[in-house]
């Protein structure tokens, strides 16, 4: 784990290969009928796994601009590959795939430019880095809450994804921030943001 979060050689070849494998794997998983409406296909419809993959890319970079560009290229390659596999196998029409990509993943891909730049600082042993990590984990935590609600209403669907989100928050907090103080700040940020958003949504009758 220590090597995964900061000691990998994330050169450009590694980024491209990582993106190709992630994209093709996701596309193949989306083709399997037995995986429909299960945690195994959540990688194709939500962000929790992709947040983790993005973190792995950026924390293994040396500079924030490098992290920004490599994160962008990772998504620029991987996401079209997901739809390319589905279209090639007749799972999606080209028009529908383009609709999904241009409305959802293309904007998200461009958001990785500022996102990758800021996320680079999550590995810094200071308050800013700890808060950045906490914010990123809050996004994952909120997805976990959303999936947990689905588990309650339709057990055990999405149980694996709910557990994955919780484990991702814990693992990234422990592995990226090395000091107890830093881990506490990062985890506290995650909890405060998650609870605040959930309470806000409940009070205003909004859906998470």
Q: Major sheet, described briefly? A: none
Number of alpha- plus pi-helical segments:
7
- What is the helical fraction, as a range of percent? over 70%
Beta content: under 5%
What's the overall geometry?
Answer: globular
Please trace the helix and strand order, writing H or E for each element: HHHHHHH
What structural class do helix, strand and pairing data support? Answer: mainly alpha
Q: Please tell me how large the radius of gyration is.
A: 17 Å
Low-confidence stretches: none
Number of strands: 0
Average pLDDT level:
94
- First-last Cα distance: 31 Å
3D structure, described in words:
Helices cover 72% and strands 0% of the residues. With 208 residues, the protein is mainly alpha-helical. The radius of gyration is 17 Å and the shape is globular.
Please sum up the structure shown.
Helices cover 72% and strands 0% of the residues. The protein is built from seven helices and no strands.
How does the SSE layout of this entry go?
Blueprint lengths: L11 H18 L18 H12 L4 H25 L5 H26 L7 H27 L5 H18 L3 H24 L5
List the defining traits of the structure above:
7 helices, 208 residues
